[in-house]
Structures are given as structure tokens and as C-alpha cells.
Amino acid sequence: MITPSLTQEVTTLHAGICSALADTNRILILYALSEKPTNVSELAREIGVSQPTASRHLNLLRERGLVTAQREGQSVIYTLADQRVIQALDLLRAVLANKIKSQAALVEIHEEPPD
After folding, report:
1. Does domain 4-81 have CATH number 1.10.10.10?
2. Which residues of 46-81 are buried (b: 16+ CB within 10 A; e: fewer)?
């Protein structure tokens, strides 16, 4: 049942997390940070974007609470705030993989020559 409380939670979820995941580079940053904490230069190099672009993505992810930042000398080291984000992304990837398999099976059925 759709309640006002559920509606508010979903609205907050969308504003806080879903919109942060609406960019491929931000998702790649999260996966990179799940392997190891790192700085913006290394992240930019790893995902193949400029440092200013990576920095903008990191700022948004930090604002949304998905990553944390800690200064270490001259560098700022970014860390994944909660590993469950990766679990959620992996689950969504599994859903997508199943959808693709289903679509491929349908294509194969329609492409089989008649007997």
C-alpha cells in the first residue's frame, strides 16, 4: 500500500541517492572506491575523465553522503561511505543481466526458422 510515509521515503531516496547514481562516471567512482580509498587524481585516471570532472562528481557524491573525504597531507583521500551501496548496485546489475538474457532468448525464439 502506498502511504504518505512511503511516498516521503521514496522522494528522499530519489533526491539523495538515486539522482547521485544517475551518471555512469559516479557509479564507476563508487566501484573504484570500493576497491580502495584514493585521491581525485588516481580516480580520474582510473575512470578516464579529467581531474576537474572527477572532482565535481566526488563533490556531489560527498554531498549525498555516498563518499567521505579526509585530508592526508597535501591530498584528500576519498572513501566509500557504506559498502551496501555496492551491494545495491550489484543487485541492479544482476536484474539488468537477467533482463538482457530474457530479451536475447526472445530474439532467438523469433529468429528460429520454421519447421
Report:
1. yes
2. bbebeeeebbbbbebbbebebbebeeeeeeebbebb
In the chain, domain spans: 4-81
**How many other CB atoms are found less than 10 A from the CB of residue 28?**
17
Q: Please give the single-letter amino acid code of residue 86.
A: I
pLDDT, tens only, 22-74: 999 999 999 999 999 999 999 999 999 999 999 999 999 999 999 999 999 99
Residue with cell 562516471: 25
Q: Which residue has the higher pLDDT, 109 or 17?
A: 17
Q: Tell me the C-alpha distance between 40 and 21, whole Å.
A: 18
